[in-house]
């Protein structure tokens, strides 16, 4: 599985962005996808996840502001980000777990989101 993110950029605080992640390869074997982010000088952290059945989970810091969704037919996952804050500034990575027993992982190259205050 290969993942390619897009949609990052510079936005003012309070603004919105939508990230996309397109999967290719053995996409039928993907069970679980998610978004992670890594701010400068910090560890990578979970933002949101979505299962193949549409179940979602969010980090407390983004609940009520971010929405994760998935179009299985288009092999695309989205992250709609609203009410952005300066602390949301980070490189956002797409992640997928796939394969037998969900034993394989794939990461995208990352897309930078910069929120100016």
Structural features, described:
By secondary structure, this protein is an all-beta fold. The protein is built from no helices and eleven strands. It has strands at residues 2-6, 9-12, 17-24, 30-38, 45-51, 56-58, 66-71, 76-81, 90-98, 104-107, 111-116. A hairpin with a 4-residue loop joins strand 7 and strand 8. The protein is globular, with a radius of gyration of 14 Å. The relative contact order is 0.32. The mean pLDDT is 95.
Record keyword descriptors for this entry:
117 residues, mainly beta, 7-stranded mixed beta sheet, 4-stranded antiparallel beta sheet, 11 strands, globular
Quick structural gist:
With 117 residues, the chain is mainly beta. It is 0% helix and 57% strand.
Stretches where pLDDT falls below 50 for ≥5 residues? none
Largest sheet: 7 strands, mixed
**C-alpha-based Rg, rounded:** 14 Å
Shape: globular
- Helix-residue proportion: under 10%
β-strand number: 11
Number of helices: 0
Terminal residue distance? 37 Å
Calculate the mean pLDDT score and round it: 95
Structural class: mainly beta
Strand content: over 45%
Element pattern in H and E: EEEEEEEEEEE
